[in-house]
Specification:
Layout: H1 2-27, H2 34-37, E1 49-54, H3 58-62, H4 65-74, E2 78-84, H5 87-96, E3 101-104, H6 110-120, E4 124-128, H7 134-142, E5 147-152, H8 158-163, H9 166-176, E6 181-184, H10 187-196, E7 203-205, H11 209-213, H12 223-230, E8 238-244, H13 248-262, E9 267-272, H14 278-287, E10 291-294, E11 311-314, H15 321-327, E12 330-333, H16 346-350, E13 355-357, H17 365-374, E14 377-379, H18 383-394, H19 397-413, H20 417-427
Parallel strand pairs: 1-2, 1-4, 2-3, 4-5, 5-6, 6-7, 8-9, 8-12, 9-11, 10-11, 12-13, 13-14
Length: 430
C-alpha cells in the first residue's frame, strides 16, 4: 500500500507542479530544507518515551499548549516532539517550545516517513484535529505505534463532502480505521469520525482543547506597552478585527467608515491572519484614505491625501493578537464575513470581550452557538450590520460588561478537555 500511495503522490506532483510552483513564488522562499521535507528531521537525543504531536498550522499549534503541559506534568520522563507544516505554525511552535524537538512535518512519502520515524522514535503520535495522512497511519500501524487524533473535528461541508466521493470513501475508511483513538470536540464530530471508518469504541467526546487554552483574564501581559508603542489611546473605544482573511478587511473598513459617523472617537485595529498579507492590507488601508500605522516598522503608510486623525492600526507582527484583544472595547473575529470557516472565538470570550462574528463560522460552530446562547456573541451579515452592532455596543457600556462576563463564564463551563484527552493518551504509552 505504501507503494500505491507513493505512486499517487508522484502522479499528483506531475499534474500539479505548476500550481505548486506558483504558490511557492507567491508565498516566498520556504524556511524548510529539502532534507527535512524528506525525513531528515532533528534526531531526538533522549532515550525515553516519546509523544510526537503534529499540528498543521498556527491554530492547531496554539491548541497544543495545555496538552503538552499536562503530559509533562503527569509523565515528566516522557519526551514531547512537535511538528507543523506551515511557516506560522513552525514559528509559533519554536516560540512555545524552545527546549523541545520542533521540526517541519515531512512529506507523506513512505521513505521520508520511515526516516523521520527512525529519528524521532515515537511511542505515540498525536494528530491535532484532522491532520491524518495515509502513509503516516500505515507505517505507524506496521510499527505498532498508536495514532491518536486530539481535539478532533470534521466539518460537514468541505471535509465530509470530499471524503464521501466514491473514489475517496473506501480509501478514507481504510485510512481512518487505523486510528487508535479519537478525542472529538463534540458529538457531531464524533459521529463523522465513525462514518469515516474509526470504530465507535475508539471515539470519545472530550470537548475542545481551545476552551482550556483560552486565557481567562482581565488583561494580557504587554498590552499596555503595545498601546504605548502604537499610540493607541486607552481613553477612546477600540474596535479590533482579528484574524481577518482575504477580501474581509475591505468590509471592515466600510463598517469603520460608517461607524465613525456616529462614534467619531472610535479607533480601529486590524490584525490579518496570514503574515504574507500584511503589506497587501497596509496598501488597502492607505488606498481607502487612512494613514496605516504598522506595528512592525512604526513607519506609517500614507494615503494620497492624508487627513489629520484619520488612521487605522495594523497588527503585522506574530504572537500579539491577544494583546490587541486585551485592549479592545469590541472585537470582530475574522474569516467569518467571508467563507473561510471562521477563527478562534474562545480566546476573545476568555478575556471578557463582547464579540461579533459573520455567518461563516463552520470551524467553531459549537463555540459560536455556546457563546450566542449565553448572550456573549452577536452574528452580523455584512459591513452595514457590523457597523450597526458595533455602534450599539459602543453606546452601551453595561451591555458590553454583561456580554463579557457571560462569555467568560461560558468558557469556564467547557474547560476540562485537556485532562480527559491526556487520561486516554497516557494509556497508550508503554
Amino acid at each position: 500500500m505504501s507503494l500505491v500511495y507513493d505512486l499517487v503522490y508522484a502522479l499528483a506532483l506531475l499534474v500539479g507542479w505548476p500550481y505548486l510552483l506558483y504558490r511557492r513564488i507567491m508565498r516566498g522562499p520556504s524556511t524548510s530544507t529539502l532534507n527535512e521535507l524528506l525525513g531528515g528531521v532533528p534526531s531526538r537525543p533522549v532515550a525515553s518515551r516519546c509523544v510526537w504531536i503534529h499540528g498543521v498550522s498556527l491554530g492547531e499549534i496554539n491548541a497544543t499548549q495545555t496538552l503538552v503541559a499536562d503530559i509533562r506534568r503527569r509523565s515528566p520522563d516522557t519526551v514531547v516532539a512537535i511538528s507543523s507544516t506551515t511557516r506560522t505554525g513552525l514559528e509559533r511552535a519554536r516560540g512555545l517550545y524552545p527546549n523541545h524537538t520542533v521540526f517541519r512535518f515531512p512529506l507523506d512519502l513512505s521513505f521520508a516517513l520511515r526516516r523521520a520515524f527512525g529519528r524521532i522514535r515515537p511511542h505515540v503520535i498525536v494528530l491535532m484535529e484532522l491532520e491524518a495522512w495515509p502513509n503516516l497511519l500505515l507505517i505507524a500501524e506496521q510499527r505498532g505505534i498508536p495514532v491518536v487524533i486530539a481535539n478532533g473535528r470534521v466539518t460537514e461541508g468541505k471535509s465530509m463532502r470530499r471524503f464521501r466521493l466514491p473514489l475517496v470513501r473506501r480509501a478514507a475508511r481504510m485510512m481512518f480505521g487505523r486510528v487508535s483513538f479519537v478525542a472529538a470536540q463534540d458529538a457531531s464530530y464524533a459521529a463523522r469520525f465513525v462514518e469515516l471508518g474509526v470504530p465507535a469504541r475508539r471515539v470519545m467526546v472530550t470537548g475542545s482543547l481551545k476552551y482550556d487554552t483560552a486565557e481567562v483574564s482581565e488583561r494580557i501581559a504587554g498590552q499596555e506597552q503595545l498601546a504605548e508603542a502604537m499610540s493607541i489611546d486607552a481613553a477612546r473605544p477600540l474596535l479590533v478585527a482579528g484574524s481577518t482573511g482575504t477580501d474581509e478587511e475591505a468590509l471592515v473598513l466600510d463598517a469603520f467608515d460608517a461607524l465613525r459617523r456616529a462614534h467619531p472617537d472610535v479607533q480601529l485595529a486590524i490584525v490579518p491572519r496570514k503574515p504574507e498579507r500584511f503589506d497587501e492590507v497596509a496598501r488597502l488601508i492607505a488606498s481607502r484614505g487612512f494613514v496605516c500605522l504598522r506595528r512592525s516598522s512604526g513607519t506609517p503608510v500614507m494615503p494620497a491625501v492624508p487627513e489629520p486623525g484619520k488612521h487605522v492600526f495594523l497588527g503585522d507582527t506574530m504572537g500579539e493578537l491577544r494583546k490587541f484583544y486585551g485592549l479592545a472595547s469590541v472585537v470582530f473575529v475574522g474569516r467569518t464575513l467571508v467563507p473561510m470557516g471562521g477563527s478562534d472565538v474562545m480566546e476573545v470570550a476568555g478575556l471578557g470581550k463582547p464579540l461579533l462574528v459573520g455567518p461563516h463560522t463552520e470551524n467553531f460552530a459549537e463555540a459560536v452557538a455556546l457563546l450566542s446562547e449565553a448572550g456573549a456573541c452577536i452574528c452580523v451579515s455584512d459591513a452595514a450590520s457590523l457597523a450597526r452592532a458595533a455602534g450599539e455596543l459602543l453606546a452601551d457600556a453595561e451591555r458590553r460588561r454583561r456580554m463579557g462576563e457571560a462569555g467568560r463564564a461560558a468558557i469556564v463551563s467547557r474547560q476540562g478537555a485537556t485532562q480527559r484527552t491526556v487520561d486516554r493518551l497516557l494509556e497508550f504509552l508503554p
